[in-house]
């Protein structure tokens, strides 16, 4: 029997594949699916959402790969290379964007690379922005 808690590249995926995984309630009382929390658990996914919220709510996978590769290079004090970009592009296409799409946060068209933030009301957008904001954006 396969281990359902092993994800991409053998990484442990907490809570994935559990039968009867619990969901938490939001302040309004509705249930928040675990897949929403899993979608926000990765830094690259939070950065994608932050970018979409701060820009035009729409982008494409190549633009996001450029932004994320640059962001990662900035974090390490290095220059982003073409191989960095390629690695980020693959991660976005095969892992991060499908997870965000499955959680109902974005719509990802893998055929043309279009990435669109789902239509949220202002309150939900504010709450999502607060969850995904980089530390320095929360402090200021």
Automatic annotation (TrEMBL):
Keywords: Plasmid. InterPro entries: DUF7344. Residues 40-116 form the DUF7344 domain. Residues 1-32 are annotated as: Disordered. Pfam families: DUF7344 (PF24035). This is DUF7344 domain-containing protein. It comes from Halorubrum lacusprofundi (strain ATCC 49239 / DSM 5036 / JCM 8891 / ACAM 34).
